[in-house]
């Protein structure tokens, strides 16, 4: 293309962008008008309320952020041009000006190639600087022209990171797109090396499924589970930027109803997170069900009804065999007893008693007393309290029983101080006692760290839905972290889920990936190595005398570049380093958050680094990070793979063995 032709083309695209923005504004204004007049057009208060909620959501979905371009690509198919963007935009006649990236036709933007052009003559990608359309690149697929790697993709992955995570709709890669667009009823497990886009894939899959199955998923809900709140803050704005404002994002602990006020020993936590505890709780609960030993007699005015012991036994046996949740079982027994009473009443009185009579019979003292004897009511807390007061069960060894027994037994379940692992047990008990509402789809990030019992927390919430499991076995740091996926998938209730590897890294530069990969053989898991798409980046490993002094110097150097800076050290070293950086004036005093954030510089404990990324990472004393916990080498693997552009490793002690000899 000649320069004037190029300028002309750019001007035309900018005009289309302006027109699309105006059209979006018009759509939003129309939605706002409808919102304002909703109660006048709606026939009744209920319709007004529903319409109001719908319109409020629609307005939020149509928000226009000037920094995120409305479209990022174009497909030329036959005589038509389709601009692909973050949401549908239509003109006043209803003609599309921008196609949502999730629409079926948009798929060609991600998948078409010279091998399989899918009718696409030209694929155009747009380059933007601060929301301004500044360039484009064309691939004439029908003429056999395709770039090995898009310059716009390279610029996007090398861009300095500031603030929270951003969406990747403009540059989703074909192997990622396959996962994003997997069917709603398919559960998948993505084993991806660091920075291969697992989190991005999970979030985009949620947005895609919501687009395709809007009504069904809005009713059932979509849940994203992340490892900690710092991570949830980091990813929080991705889905709203894609127009999806109604997705629940939570940690595992956030899903649980129990307030945590105690800490377990490592040994106790290990037993409580073991899947045998599910069986222990179930046995204890079902052990409460007893055989009726005597007949039931109920007075009803001048009548007395009687149900024989055999009939009562049959009812209890039948319900037990049907295996409903425990509290539903109790109600079923009650209902069947009332039915028998009703038959007698009908036979004697010749007419059928009404609902009030049935309710009265169901609450009659002899019926309640019988139920309390043969199928006693119990709360989840009470059940766990009983097991931890006396964990006798041949599924657990004597030592295991001892280690989970209350050290100081509380008087009642109500006064118990529960630990995080107890909260999981209470949730398990709640799932045995009653039904748990299931989400339509659940995305679980950093899934390698789920214990079997935590996996069951998710399983209960996705029983009637599907899951996207994202993780990397090499990054498992919890004591119970998974060594392979099939076992965890079984605990999640999705044993047949497909396990798909992702190996192309978009975050970490090749030199840093090579360093981290040296740890892989020592981690005891079988995972494919990452290969980085990035040849840029810098790695410096320095032996130093004063860690604090060198950290300050390193941060000062890093501040000369654009982007975020993460200083990562053992949890115990964080306060000292943050103090030194404040004294040196490179971090302003008074930052209140637990990650000691101030502007571009964050000092964070190794235990919170998972899932996050910084342009410049300074890792302080790897030997201490390794020594701090049982899976210290895995933790170091996580920490080393947080860098987008530059990694400094500062050490006073020798480097851990797998890194021997690097400099
Ligand atoms: N197709 C893509 N285009 C542009 N950027 C991408 C693409 N895929 C991933 N990225 C970027 O690469 C970085 C890493 O992605 P992400 O955090 O999703 O990886 P991850 O596999 O979850 O990593 P980790 O296992 O380390 O948590 C992010 O900045 C993300 O935006």
UniProtKB/TrEMBL annotation:
Keywords: ATP-binding, Helicase, Hydrolase, Nucleotide-binding. ATP binds at residues 192-199. Transmembrane segments: none annotated. This is AAA family ATPase. Residues 171-509 form the UvrD-like helicase ATP-binding domain. It holds the Pfam family AAA_19. The keyword ATP-binding applies. SUPFAM superfamilies: P-loop containing nucleoside triphosphate hydrolases.
